[in-house]
Each structure stands twice: as C-alpha cells, then as structure tokens.
Amino acid sequence: MNIFQKTLLIALLFFYYTAAYAQHPGLLLTPAGVKEIKKNAGKYPGFDNAVAEQKKIADNALHSTITVPQPKDGGGGYTHEKHKNNYYEMYAAGIMYQLTGKKEYAQFVTDMLKKYATLYPTLGLHPAVKSETPGKLFWQTLNESVWLVHTSVAYDCVYDYISATDRQNIEKNLFYPMAEFISNGNPANYAVFNKMHNHGTWATAAVGMIGYAMGDKNLVDMALHGSAKDGKTGFIRQLDVLFSPDGYFTEGPYYQRYAIWPFMTFAQVIQNKQPELNIFKYRDGILNKAVNTLVQCAYDGEIFYLNDALKKTYQTQEIIYAVDIAYKNDPANTALLDIARRQNSFIVSDAGIATARAASKKDVKPFTFKPLILRDGAKGDEGAIAILRKGNTCLTFKATSHGLSHGHYDKLSISLFDNNNSILTDYGAVRYLNIEPKYGGHYTKENYSWAMQTIAHNTVTVDEQSHFDGNIKVSSNYHSDLLYADVSNPDIQIVSAVEKNAYKNVSMQRTTALITVPDLEFPVIFDIFRVKSDSAHQLDFPFYYRGQMVSGNFSVQKNTSELKTLGTKNGYQHLWVEGKGKTDQDNATFTWVNDNRFYTITTKCDSQTELLLTRSGAGDPDFNLRYEPCFMLRQPNAGNHTFVSVIEPHGLYDLIKEVTINYKSAVASVQLLQDNEELTVIKVATNSGKNYLFATSNSMSSENKSFIYNNTKISLSNNYYFSEIKN
Amino acid sequence: MNIFQKTLLIALLFFYYTAAYAQHPGLLLTPAGVKEIKKNAGKYPGFDNAVAEQKKIADNALHSTITVPQPKDGGGGYTHEKHKNNYYEMYAAGIMYQLTGKKEYAQFVTDMLKKYATLYPTLGLHPAVKSETPGKLFWQTLNESVWLVHTSVAYDCVYDYISATDRQNIEKNLFYPMAEFISNGNPANYAVFNKMHNHGTWATAAVGMIGYAMGDKNLVDMALHGSAKDGKTGFIRQLDVLFSPDGYFTEGPYYQRYAIWPFMTFAQVIQNKQPELNIFKYRDGILNKAVNTLVQCAYDGEIFYLNDALKKTYQTQEIIYAVDIAYKNDPANTALLDIARRQNSFIVSDAGIATARAASKKDVKPFTFKPLILRDGAKGDEGAIAILRKGNTCLTFKATSHGLSHGHYDKLSISLFDNNNSILTDYGAVRYLNIEPKYGGHYTKENYSWAMQTIAHNTVTVDEQSHFDGNIKVSSNYHSDLLYADVSNPDIQIVSAVEKNAYKNVSMQRTTALITVPDLEFPVIFDIFRVKSDSAHQLDFPFYYRGQMVSGNFSVQKNTSELKTLGTKNGYQHLWVEGKGKTDQDNATFTWVNDNRFYTITTKCDSQTELLLTRSGAGDPDFNLRYEPCFMLRQPNAGNHTFVSVIEPHGLYDLIKEVTINYKSAVASVQLLQDNEELTVIKVATNSGKNYLFATSNSMSSENKSFIYNNTKISLSNNYYFSEIKN
C-alpha cells in the first residue's frame, strides 16, 4: 500500500467512523434494520408478537400521564417499579417511532426525558440505604446503569426528532450527570466502574452507550478502556478477565445470564458504531462462546442453580438479547436457532429480525446439549464446572473458584436432574426479587446464613464448619482443581476433582461418573468422596432430594412430636432433625419418588455411620425458607474416610394410569475394594446378578496404574477403569 | 297393533335379543365397530395412537412368557402388578385379534385364560391381609372385579376362536367360580355385591359382563337386579341411589371418576346386548349427566380434591371411557368433544371411533365450565357441592352428606383455585397408590388421623374435635343443608349453607361469595363463617395456602429452634406450630405469593384472636405426609362468633421478566356491620377509596329482609344484597 492509498484508507475509515458515530438510530437499531423489519412484517409470528408487545407498551404509555416520582422505595416498591417501567416505555416508544414514524412516540420520549432532566439534578443519594453503592433514582447504582442502557437506545431512536435545545438540556442535566455518577459518582461507583464484575459491565455499557448516542468519544473510550483509558479496566478488559477460555462466567450461570445482557448489548452497539474493533472476534470470539456456554448451563430450559441463583429460563429477555445478537454476529452459529425457536420471541432490532428470519427456516436442527467441562478462571486454570449428560439425565459438578460476591461455599458439590425434574437439588439463593416486604427484594439474611453455607449443598461439611469457614476473602484466594475429566465416551462420563484448601489439614477428592449399562433402565451415578486427614473429624454428607421418601433399609427414630435443629450456626441452625437411623448392614439404601420415577441412593456405611433425615426451614423468623428434605450421611469420628454411593433412577410411578413398576432399586450393593493414594476401586452389584468394577486414579502420574482383582492385574486407561465382571 | 303384528314384533324382538346376546364380539366392540375402525385407520391421530398402544401391549405380550404367579403381594408388589398387567395384555390381544384377525392374539388370550383356569381353583384367600374383602388373585376383591371386567372384554373378543372344550374348561374353572366369588364368595362379598357403593358397581359390572360374554342370563340378571333379582340391589338400583339428580356421586369426584368406569362400561355392554333396556335414558339420562358433572368437577383438567382423593386428570383411562361412551350414546352432547380433544386418546371400541371422528370436526366448541350447584343425595336433598367460577378463578364449597367410607369430616369447607394453581388447598388423601413399601399402597394410617380430620380442612373445628367426633356412623346420619345458592349472576355468585349436627349445641353457617367488581383486578372471595353456641368454645379456622408467605400486618413469635405440635389428637398431632401472632387492629392481613400472583386474606379480628402459623408433617413416623403451610385463626373463648374474611388474588410477580406489581392487597378493611339471626351485613373498603356493602340472609323466610344503612333502608333481594356504596 503506498502513501496515497494509506491516506485514502484512513480518510475513508475516518469518514465511515464518523458517519457511523453520528448516525441515528445506530445503537441496536439501524436504518437498514428498520427497513428489514418493515419489509418482513407479518412473516415471522414470534417477531411480530415482539413488535406488538413493544407497540402495546408504547401505546399504553402514550395514554398515560408521565410520572417521574421522587425516589423512595426499594426493589418491588412503587417508585422503583415506576422508574423501571419508565425506561421500558421510552425504549418501546423509541422503537415504535422508528418503525412507524409517528411523532407522538418521539414526543413521549422527549417529554419524559425532560422530566428526568428536571428531577435528576435535584437528587441526592437514594433514601433506601441497602447498598454500598446507592443510586439516585434507584436504591443501587446498578439499576441506574440498567436504566441508562435502555434509555440510551430510546434516545438514539428519537435523537433526530428532538430539538437541539431540548437535547442540550437533556444531555447536560440528565445524561452527563448520570454518566458521571455511574462512572465516578462516589468512590464506590468509581471502583465498580473499573471493577472486573458484572456490575462493572452494566456500568461501562451504560456510559459507553450513552456516549455513542450523544457522539461523545470521551465517554466511549472510558467505557471501553476504563476511567484511566489505559485498558487496565473497562469493557474490553472485562472480556479478558470475566470469562474463562470456555466462556464460563466466574459468578455462575445465573449471573452469566445477567451479565450477558450488557455484554452482548454493548458489543452490538460497538459493532455498529466501531466495526473496526471487531469486538465479536475479540479473544477468539469469547462473547459468542459465552452465549453458547450459557445455553448449555441449563436443564429443560431452566438455568442451573450454582451460587446465588433464582429461577430463570430461556424466556428471559437477556437470553433473548444474547441469542439474537450472537447469531446476528456469527451466522455460522446455527445451533442457536433452535434456542431462538424455543424462545419464540426476539428483540426488535437488526439482530432480532435476522434471527427470526433464520429461525423460521425448515432446516433448523435441535440444539445439542453436550457433556461439557467448563474451565473457570480467566486463564482456565481455576478448576471447572463439569456437566455430565446422558439422555434426559444431567449432573452438574462444581469445582471452581469462589465466584465473587455471589459465590457459595460448596466445593465439589453436585446436582442431579432427571426426567425433567430436579432430583438432587442446589437450594439456590434466598431472595424474593422485587418483593418489597421481603427485605426490599434483596438477598435476605438467610442467603448468607443458609444458602451460601456448605451444609446447604450436596457436598461434605467437616466439623460443622463451612468451607473456608465461610470467609469470602480466604475462599477467593483458592479454587478446586480438576484431577481429570473424561466425557468422550457417552456411556462413561467421569469427573474427578480435589479441594485441598477448604479446611486446614483436610483434603477432599470427589470422583463422580455417569454410567450407562444395558442392565439398568437409566444412567446411574457412581460417586466416590474421599476425605483425608491425620486427625479425627465429623463428616456430614447431605443429599438434598426432591420428592417423597418411599423406603430405606434402615430403621429411623423419627421425631414426631418435637423438632430441634441440627446445630446452631453455619447453616445447621436452619435444619430440622426429623429422624436418625443406623444400620448394621454394609450398605444403606434410601428410596424416594419424584413425579413418576423412583430414585435410590445405595451407599457404603459402617457401624459408625449415622443416617440423618433433616429438613430446611428452621431458624427462619421471617418465613423466607422453603422446606426441603435431606438424607444425610454422618461419619462422626473419621480421619481418612471414603463415601461410596450409587444413585439410581428407576421404575415408573404412574398415578394417572395407576401403574407401578420397579419401585425397588436394581442395585444390590456397593463395595469399596481398594482405596489409597494411587487409586480407588469399587464394585457395584445388581439384583439381576451383574457386577461392575470401577476404578479411578487418585493422583496424576505418567505411569499407568493398575490393581489386582481375582488374581488378575487390571490396568487403568485414561485414569479410570470400568467394566462388567464375572463376579 | 293387531295380534299378528304383536306376535311378529315379539318374535322380532326376541330374535334381536337373542342374536345380540349371542353375538361376539358384542360387549364394547361389535362387528360394526370393527369395520368402522378398520375403515378409518390413519384418519384420527389420537385414535390411531390408541390402537398403536393396544398393539404394542399385545405384541409385547406375544413375545413374553405367560406368567400367572401365585398371589402374594399387596398393591404395587410383583404379583399384584403382574395380574393387573395380565388383564391389560388379554384385553389388548383380544382387541388386536378383532382388528387384525391374527390368530396369535387369540391364542395368547386362550393360553393365558387356561393358565388362570388351572390356578384359580387352587386359590384360597389372598395372603396379604389388608382388606375386609380379600380377593383371591388380589389383596381385595375389588381388584378381582376389575380383572374380570377387562377379561370379559378379552374373552368376548376371542370367544369364537376358542374351542368349545377350552371354553368349557375356562368357564367352569375360572369365570363361574370367580363370578360366584365376587357375588357371593364370602359374606362380605355378598354384601358388597348388593351394596350401594362403587365397589358394588365394579362387582355387578364384572359379573354382568362375564355373564353377557358367556351368554348366561342368570348372571346378567343378578348383576342388573341384585342377588335376589328383586331390583332392590344391583346395577340398576345403583343408578337410582348413587347419583344425585344432578349427577353427583356421593363419595366425591375422585371416586365418581373411578365409579364412572364400570358404570359407563357396563352400561355400554347393556346397551349393546339389551338395547331394549334403554339404559342411557334411564332416570332421565343419569349416566350421561354424571359424566358431564364429573368433567365439571375439575380445575385445569385436574379433578377436585374432595374426600379421599389423589391426583387425577382428564387423561385417566376411566374418563376416556366415560367421555367416549357418553358421547356415543348421546351424540347431542357435543360439549364432550372438546374434552375428548384434550384427552387426545380414545378407547378402541365402537364408542371410541365414533367420538374420535366427531372430535376431529372443525366446529368443536370449547367446553363451558360453569358455576354449578350439585345437589347430593339420591333425591338431591342432602346438601350440595357448590362450584363458583369466574374467569380463571374457581372455588369449591362442600356442604354434603358424609360420602360413605371415603368421606372426610369437613362440613362447609372451601378450596380455591386461581391462575392455574391450587391456592387454598384440600390436602386430599394420604396414600401412595401401588407403592408397596407405603403400607402396601393402601390408605396410610395418617389418612384417618390427618387427612380425614376436620382440622386438615379449610373450615372451622370446635374445641379441637372433628365434626361428628370423627365418627362415620354418626356423620352418615346427617348432611349439611344449603340455605340458598345463586350463581345466576356471573359477577356475584353466592352459596350459603348450614351445618347443625357436626357438634352438639353448636351450629355453623358459612356464606361464601365470588365477587367481581371493576375496582379489583381479579374476582375476590367474601367469606362469612358464623358459629352459634350458648356456651364458650375454642374455634380454629385454618386457611391452607399454597405458596410462600410474603407479609402480614401482625407480628409473629416464630419458633426458630424448636417445633412442637399443636395438639395430640384429631389431626392436631400432625401440625407443627411455627409461630403465633396477635394484632391490636380490627383486621389481620396475610399475604402469600403463589407462582406469579399474590394472595391476601383480610380478616376481621379482635383482641382475643390468635393468629397461628402451622405446617403439616408432624406425627408422621413413616414419612407419609407433605409439609403444607397454614394461616389459622383461633378464637379461644367464643360463644357466638362470626369470622369475616376477604380473599383477594392480586398483582404480578414475574421472576423471569423481573416485574413486580401490586404486591399489596387492594382491600383496606373488612367490617362486620350487623349480624343476627335474620341477616349479616359486612362492608369492604378498598385502598382506592371504594366501599362495598354485602348482606346475606341467615334464615329462609318468605318476607323480604332489610336493614338500615346510613339512615336508608336497604332490602335484600333473592337472599342477598351487594352494591358499591358512597361511604
């Protein structure tokens, strides 16, 4: 390229750049998109419904009095919901103005923005003191950022309609002060804006999007590269840090869902405004990878409950944004079209119409839910989430880093889904989002005292203390480590991980495998939990099952007229002790029924093992907890101890047809044959007389491990061995 | 008609009669039906699936070894399920033989019947002693009757295939002994066969159907007219007695569903074999009326939980039988076609194919769920069930007779459904049908100690004793009485009923209205419960709500570290006391959230009123109970006392979209203005400043009652008054 060509290119780029920068609408909707949407009206019912929904919101808004109330209430309260509703109305009206050209819509946005421009300069910090980063319109700045993300889109849509005087007023009295407040409003906001955290993503997206909308390069650059514009913080740095190389967001899928919204929305805006940044190609296409990973982190369309989490489905608008924008910017990712179909809703934007059109084609293939190992950490070296799947059975295994402020203390915990139901359950978070009487809609205190604590999870608690003693600062320094994982064989999916820091002088290793054999109706779980210590400890190992207990092979002393709690702290104060049992057999079995299927845990035990039946719901003065039952193994005085269990879905309980089949587990016994630093060998026998041998490596070494069984030397391959054996 | 004509007619009738009697198949399937089914193959997917399902069962049976085990297990156990499975296999094979002509199917039925013919004569009473009427193949004779109903159809289908010798063997050693056993096997069976009870219906249907199949008029006549053939008992007498004139079955909808199966099946057989009996016209078409009533006794396709009841939907095969046969025999009843569509399954019979064809037509109209008063008692004078419905809100009100052995002690109890959820709940029965480890699949002991007791229901318990002291013999002598009911105005649906016998010297009256006013988002319930007594009593008035408590206007002393039971007997031993509250206000409010909607009870109280929060699940050594929460009003020392409550569904809690609207009830207060033997007047005020006056008559008299409000005389019309008022 000669100097002339270079100059020309720069000039062209500059022209293109400034042209894109100045164009309205140009954030989520562009003139080309508007044209496309109009042309295809009536063709794609899901998209038409989305437009109709926006139209309904906008038309309702036109017929209502504009109210911009003095901020007062927390989440779920009147002023909170009103300000939220207002941005949805402006957003809808902005879009409808673009689609119809009706000035009433644009005037509505203008009028409301002017009211905000009058109110905003008068506001101090929000009176509901429940956050370390209070907002002005809302109880926390986070909601202010969300407000601005939406309002930026509305402003962009009606920008050319508003008079220069009005624009100046609105920008000067509302948008600039708000951008300043979000990015620098008080020391805490500055920190959040420059933090590697989903609140930081919302903050940078908000400031960046209003920057683009107003054509202010300074705000945009701060948003992209941090307050100091040095790239050490800001949106692009977040892309480096907040996702692992597998597209896993360290806070967990629930917050991945929430963070993906500003990530994808802002990225789409960047792509429209500064295509030269190639934001969707950044870090090997990390954003689209994150969307696919998010979609994988679900069972039956419901996002996994890992760390703080409430019920969320594919129908949430944030996942609709994510799927549409991901597809639009990587049309090769056709797997998402099946998800778009299930959503059957779209964003009214360039991305939405493109996705709707593609999803309407006949050749859309079903999305493939795969077994996956999702590494945690920016470099992928901070443990992992494992997802084992076969047919309709799915098991999650958590061996990650802490997950920031929303992390739970549950290293090596599992959850099990089967038959479209939650079978072994993660409690999730204790929060009634947006219900004002419930602690302002915020996480309740039981979220910390119960939901975050180790005993609330399907993993081992030592000496009634949570992992890292429930101290986030300590926990955040560490992560579990994968020992190995192998999901290459659909019939034998295995993950093994270690946690050496959760307790002093106690190390833990869990190996969980999803095994499919012809002898058993459904895939079963082999679960080996090794605890190592030089001294004696009490080990509590709960299984939070959903459903109704059917039977056990042990007798239970049930507390029928009085209940007491299992303990007084670290979550134990929230568990009622319903009963205790013991068995003199080598295995305890516990069967429950969930929906139309039975489940049995068959677990090795000894004369010391206590079998506890507990239920959450104690220590709950404000009626915030759910009552959920638990089958808990307690090993009261254990140094080195290995729990070995098989969890089997079985049979049929059809109450409608009144048919019951195989209410008894097909598993006859589990035995621990060998257990040392090298490897663990177990044997599982079934009632039909089959025997299975399973061995797993307990340490990584280059040599091939082996063991002797029935005078035969058996070697592990890829760290494990699994086979049916004669006896 | 001259003598010749008469003779000819009689001869023709006789010929027709005997021809029908002798024809095979002739029970549920006839040669005409077979032809029709073949002709329409591939036309009606729901019907094709039903045929495919029968074919699958039959083909699987052909490829399995016939096993007729020695009876041993209770419900859900191996031998129980095997004998059950066997009759389904014979039934399917019989039908498939008719549809395909393949001899393998017929041979299978023959072979299995021969095995039964060998086994049956060797059997004594069933070893699992859990019933007063033990069977031989099954733990209770009831299941033996069900076996025979199905097997009769199979036998009828393959009758012409089986050799005369084999028929003789099978009839002599199996069917005759079984018919004899069912109708007369031991004194208890004789009583059941001649009893006005659903077990009697199964018994007569079984004996009658095998009678028709074998061409034995004696058995048929016994079935139709009772053992003595005098018409004082038997199937036809059951039609007189077991349904009320409104087609309500006295045991309740759950057993109506179960009883409708032999009723409709046997009736279809009678219609095919003895059309001159005009069985479907009998008692003004009581059978078809009963089917329509059954379908009405459901919310969102799920049968109401009144008396002993488990989950049952329209998808149950018995309701498929009922709908198909009802439609076939009264094609004017096109309302059922919408139900048939929802079922999307059919019986493979003449009735099934006729219904499938009609349901496939384009002009099928939605079934109309109506507010209904369903009188109880053969004459319709033993109280009633009231069903109040508006939009998606539905309330049931029980003021009936006891309901035989499956009746609960819950006079004047209500249940509420809204938004496709159960909101105020009837616990139903404690039973794990067909799960052997759960008391053999039978009703567990908690069914009596808890589910039947008054305190388990949304009605008043006096002095911690159940209605009629939980004594069925006493309870069966009485019934509640409707005072009046008016569902003619969709916006003001009212039922008022009295119960004067449940307690000595205490009478109760409940008036419940489903009110729709423009001021409130959804229909609301006005509920007035009057208790009258000359002496002081403790009144407990529970509301078993489903969902999570949100808030109350009273403070609660919550038991956070220890739970005790509310009492020691009459169901109280099954309730944990979670907390107690009091208020110094005139109203207590209690709000909970269920799914995406809020519900608030606003109830009048005084300084004595205790507000209890309880939960079922205590006193349950075998883990048979569910944990269900309750908001309970306790009036500790009351003579005459009137509870006045408004129950309001309100707002929106959309966790997916994160939108919360109106979590506060719109009801500001409820006031009792006047309350005497003549009438009760209440006033309900809303937060938007509206006031509503509601008055209801407390006694029937010819004069028009009136009361004075704000110096104005207001007269009741049709026993009530409802209007918005100025203040």
Describe this structure in words.
The structure is a homodimer of 727-residue chains. Chain A is an alpha+beta fold. Chain A has 2 domains: 3-359, Glycosyltransferase; 374-554 and 589-725, Beta-galactosidase, Chain A, domain 5. In chain A, helix 6 (141-158) packs antiparallel against helix 7 and helix 13 (282-296) packs across helix 14 (317-329). The termini of chain A are far apart. The mean pLDDT of chain A is 95. The interface between A and B is large, with 57 and 57 residues.
Search tags:
6-stranded antiparallel beta sheet, homodimer, Beta-galactosidase, Chain A, domain 5, Glycosyltransferase, 30 strands, elongated, 18 helices, 727 residues, alpha+beta, 8-stranded antiparallel beta sheet
Write the layout of secondary structure elements.
The structure is a homodimer of 727-residue chains.
Chain A: H1 3-22, H2 31-39, H3 45-62, H4 78-100, H5 103-119, H6 141-158, H7 164-184, H8 187-193, H9 198-214, H10 217-225, H11 235-241, H12 253-273, H13 282-296, E1 298-299, E2 302-303, H14 317-329, H15 335-343, H16 350-359, E3 372-375, E4 384-390, E5 393-399, E6 413-418, E7 421-424, H17 445-451, E8 461-462, H18 472-475, E9 481-489, E10 492-503, E11 506-515, E12 524-533, E13 537-543, E14 548-552, E15 555-558, E16 562-564, E17 575-582, E18 587-594, E19 597-604, E20 610-616, E21 629-638, E22 641-650, E23 652-654, E24 659-661, E25 667-675, E26 679-686, E27 691-697, E28 706-709, E29 712-715, E30 720-725
Antiparallel strand pairs in A: 1-2, 3-4, 4-5, 5-6, 6-7, 8-13, 9-10, 10-11, 11-12, 12-22, 13-21, 14-18, 15-17, 17-20, 18-19, 19-22, 20-21, 23-24, 25-26, 26-27, 27-30, 28-29
